[in-house]
Amino acid sequence: MEKTTPQFKMKYVAEKTGLSEYTLRYYEKEGLIVPARSANNLRLYSQEDVEWLFFIEHMRSTDMSIKDLKHFVKLRRNGTEYETELLDILLQHRQNVRDKLTKYQANLELLDHKIDIYTDQLKNRDQNLYDYFVTLNADKFQ
């Protein structure tokens, strides 16, 4: 795919993506993105660069490491011969996200249970709420 002409300055890209200029420079330093340079040495980003930054941020928000992203970028830059490996990376990451969602769901259920306990205790306040909570959990450790 041919890139569009780089035209967006760093400040605009930072505003458009919600990333700080520091983060954009960091991603460049790590090799995740390679913006063009103007005659005055200003970074210029293409529309594809901006879309790639959105992808990076989506992956980061699901805890994909910089190391894994760098590996993905390296394979991506080497052309179509690595498409299967790129797909494998995304499939593995999706499984990691699903595993975390399962864990978060269990934690959410535990939180909901504790909230119900606190709510009930507040309604029947014959004991200090903290003491009740500690007593309730003490049985698990004996």
Automatic annotation (TrEMBL):
UniProt-listed InterPro entries: DNA-bd_dom_put_sf (IPR009061), MerR-type_HTH_dom (IPR000551), MerR_fam (IPR047057)
SUPFAM superfamilies noted in UniProt: Putative DNA-binding domain
GO MF term list: DNA binding; DNA-binding transcription factor activity
Protein name in UniProt: MerR family transcriptional regulator
UniProt organism field: Weissella soli
